[in-house]
């Protein structure tokens, strides 16, 4: 498992993928407030680091209110960013902070990159206000014990891995801290770490390694076909 800071340099060196072409729209023409119950459910789904969050957002694109711009892709959706391949286009700052289950959501980030040697790296999640410890405590309150993040130094994480050939939904607990995933394996991590900006924390999911198109479609159905290769 590597933190997002570990991958930042990698993301700057990788070859570009095809253009991001999902249709975007505001969560509502009028100024609508978040549906706090639905938003809480969405955060719990997000923490699974699978398709659950994107499926739920596709069903209820206004659940976070009008402060977030949403991109639809068929029946699923995700918060919009300009370009997941470009460092300057990977972040959407929300029009106003959104308070959900003890977390104050400030922005969404979405990064997609690929390297012929190290494999795929996908990273998605929220910027929140406060420290990693505070964010981890709030998120863990939403999760079952087996799904909670644990403290690993300055970060909190829940790492899982799988090998090519495993059943599509089979994940083992654990990962290799501080290194890229070995060839033929994939690591999936729920990670909470300090942001570069003081007083902010990143609550994110990461998928890295030998990510096959069927697995990518299974975990990130929100990505357009051009980014599922």
Architecture blueprint of SSEs:
Layout (H helix, E strand, L loop, with lengths): L3 H10 L9 E4 L9 H11 L5 H8 L9 E5 L2 E4 L11 E10 L2 E13 L3 E11 L2 H9 L9 E3 L2 E9 L8 E2 L11 E10 L5 E10 L3 H7 L10
Helix pairs in contact: 2-3
Helix content: 10-25%
Structural class by sheet pairing and helices = alpha+beta
- Gyration radius, in Å: 16 Å
End-to-end gap: 23 Å
N-to-C SSE string, H for helix and E for strand:
HEHHEEEEEHEEEEEH
| Low-pLDDT residue intervals, each spanning 5 or more residues | 9-29
Main sheet, how many strands, which sense, barrel?
8 strands, antiparallel
Number of strands: 11
What does this structure look like?
There is one protein chain. The protein is α+β, with helices and mostly antiparallel strands and 229 residues long. 20% of the residues lie in helices and 35% in strands. The model is unreliable at 9-29 (pLDDT under 50). The longest helix has 11 residues, at 36-46. The chain contains 5 helices and 11 strands. Strands 4, 5, 6, 7, 8, 9, 10 and 11 form an 8-stranded antiparallel sheet that branches. It has helices spanning 4-13, 36-46, 52-59, 132-140, 213-219, and strands spanning 23-26, 69-73, 76-79, 91-100, 103-115, 119-129, 150-152, 155-163, 172-173, 185-194, 200-209. Strand 5 and strand 6 form a beta hairpin. It is globular, with a radius of gyration of 16 Å.
Tag the structure with descriptive keywords.
229 residues, alpha+beta, 3-stranded antiparallel beta sheet, globular
